[in-house]
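User: Could you check the structure of this?
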Amino acid sequence: MSVRTAVPADLPALLEMAKAMHAESVYRHLPFNAAKVAAQFVNWMGDPDVRVFCYDQKGQKVGLLVASVGTHWFSDGLGAWDHLYYVKPDARGSFAAARLFQAFTAWAKAQGAVDLWPGVSTGSAAAVTFYRRLGLEEVGGVFRGAIV
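Assistant: Sure, the predicted structure tokens are below.
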């Protein structure tokens, strides 16, 4: 069981987890474009301001976290954001989510980030509870409205 930086050979497993996350998210009404997501993973893997983490458990990839660091629009101070954070249902309740978050935090700190900005797009109360247990505070929300 370990967290590591993903490599191009991990792409099929990363795509599988990204598709599963999409299906659980509030964005599931939009079509999933596997080719676009694959290209995005390749771009992320080549970007020094982005890290793609995966969590291996018993020879299987069961977790994924894509993080980036950058400045806020109003400041030169660095923050760290997650773009994808997913743990397969059968690995939830294990150490996968916590280990991925620890890797995210350590990497962000090494990059000079001063704060973390993870989000939840799955509507998961468990994810909100997880972040609160880690000492993070809820500071806002995401709203969506259909354009008709």
